[in-house]
Write a structure and sequence with these properties.
The protein is mainly alpha-helical and 491 residues long. It is 73% helix and 0% strand. It has 26 helices and no strands. The longest helix is centred in the N-terminal third of the chain and has 21 residues.
Amino acid sequence: MIQYYKRAGIIGCLFLCCFGSKAFADDQQWKFDALTQKAYDLALNLKFKEVHELITDAQTAQELYVVSLAEAIELLLEEDGEKYTEYQSAFEKRKDRKTKLNSPDDLFLQAELAIQWSFVYFKFGHEFDAALNLRDAYSITSALRKRYPKYVAIKKTAALLEIIVGSVPEKYNWVLSLLNIEGSVDVGLKLFDDVHQAASPLILEADLLHALVLCYILQQPQAALTAVRSLQVEHEGHPLVLFLGASVAIKDSKGELALTMLNKLEAIRTSTRLDYADYLLGEVYLCKAEYLNSISAYRSFLANYKGQNNIKDANYKIGLCYYLNGNSSDAISTFKLARNTGKEVTEGDKYAARSLSEDELPHPLLTKARYSIDGGYYDKAKLILDSIRPADIPTARDQVEFFYRRARLEHKLNQVEAATADYKKVIELNVNSPWYFAPNSSLQLGYIHLANNETKAAEQYFEMALSYKKHEYKNSIDTKARSALDQIKRK
């Protein structure tokens, strides 16, 4: 269950990091005055210092909301331990604020404080506190919606909660029952649309959350990218939109588009340095096979980032860049450094740790093909795979990976029949080896059958994906398989 909530927390790492007839009068809807609107815009533009300079003594629900949002986003993007202690103390005082609790604005504030800090707690590894705050947010939101059913602002909070809770795999329903909470993905998506249609002052925030949900919870990066591209037309040059867009573009194997967005983000550098953008830049250049540029970007990330997540992964990939660029000496010394730095919390860090524990270095051509496919550089990937001869892949692992990489490329190019054959070959060759190639091949075959409305076959492959034990991406692949099975059952 904790692993699932961590996945839900990606929304907080990237948005907050990695954000009929009326029941009462319009003047009871959430509104910003000129000061708080300016501060809110500054917060979403990642100008956190300016927010605190503008609101020096937050008192109203709107002022407290904006300051808390700015602090939460700052913590999730920068992972600064010293600021965490300072901002947590401020959060606790705001949470204890008991004035005007009968007003919808103040109830909305309390719900938002809880969900913002649920994401912050997840980011800093305090899962129990995160879960308690998520439950508090759900409880306050439910009460507010019952009392004020036409209060638009709370629909943003409710939408996110509905989707997070509603997409929990069926096997965890007993936990939700104990907490007395339930949710629906369809209801959550409709609530996001309601906020958009109502022209709420929180519309951009809601639209960004909607895109994040599509990409990281519902596993629909293409739909998420379409949503973000629309936001970019409406909010040209907006740093948070560009940052989200680059993240989603990488997820959707659109390396060149991600690079364009990251370059635009660098050109409009705000008062807040987005160090994680350097990490994303390193990812794109690695996929693009511009290894020296990738090393430079990863080093910039490591030099400035205050957190611990992705540190091991960045060091490992610097070593990988040296290795793929033919510099074995620097590669070996960097791999040694990577073994002794960073934590193993994110999947990237876990994969790096596992790779670093192996005696053999990864196959250079297959590794180049992998990252070319990840970045959407399919012509380059095809040239690499076509150049590989049987003698080039003598080990069992490399043989399995060869068919896996070819299957992934064929799938990306919509050569479904060829991809299906190669995925099955991977499953046949992988046997009981602890590699992720067969589990993900099973997952992809499930998606292929699901797209063809072959539900029974899809379910069999999703179950097969779940059956593999102790591979590199087990949490991620299991979550996707369970989510797909859950979607089939909801239909």
